[in-house]
Design goal:
single chain; mainly beta; Methylamine Dehydrogenase, Chain H; four-stranded antiparallel sheet; 1 helix; 47% strand
Length: 285
Amino acid sequence: MTGVTPGSPPAVTHVIPGETRVYAVTSLDDHMYAVRSNKKEVEVYDAVTMILERRLPVPGISRYASGIAACSRNKCLYLSDWSNPSIHRVDLATGAVKKWQVAKTPRGLSVNRDHNILVACQTEKKLQEYTTDGRLVREICLPAGLGSPWNAMQLSTGDFVVSHWQLPGVVRVVGVYGRLLRSYQPSNSSDVWPMKYPISLAVTTHGDILVADTGNDRILAINSLLTRAQVFSLPADLRLEQPIALCLDDTRDRLYIGEYGGKNRVIVLNNASCIYLQLSNLSHT
């Protein structure tokens, strides 16, 4: 990213309040999908107008779905149910739902480079990878003492970045067998001060990381080496309230943010590529 001239800052294009808290957001093709607390359904929005098109029921899921991810190859959604430890796969063409059991307290979901679904299981402190039909591919037990994993994403290196829901908060990278490779845990003396219960992650095309630092009402941008971080710049008139969900939509140059507090908003930011410009200085210093 060296030599790139910074463009316009991110701009808020839509703000969607809700009756209940947002738990997770994702996007696929021409739609954005949101999961809210105490709902057995997925809100489906038109990605151009951000108008709510429909509510997609998910038979068999409880009111405690806490993660969602979309797969472009298999044209489906995945939802995690933490009260009844399971993943629910929803076929977007037919509406058919397939369910399978996973380790205790599944939280965040992501689709990896093999188009498999990756789930962070909080209670058992492990990551599990499944095929689209529910076959377990691998199970990564995290080292003792690493705290409660909430979200995990596979990096281009094959390693995994993991957010740990704890105080002070930590983001770590582990290898394919669970070995700890590096950590980021800012101190009281750092420029960004300690994280409080980081939850959702988003990884840019350059391998840098956005973190929903929920307890601090902010988003952190961390370079791929986990050596530098800064608070992600937002429009001056936007104050986040417990951001819990992040989703980068590279095709539309957009960042979706879901809030757990306040008016339970889904916030849409355009010109998300400025994230890469903010992070470029961190990655090369």
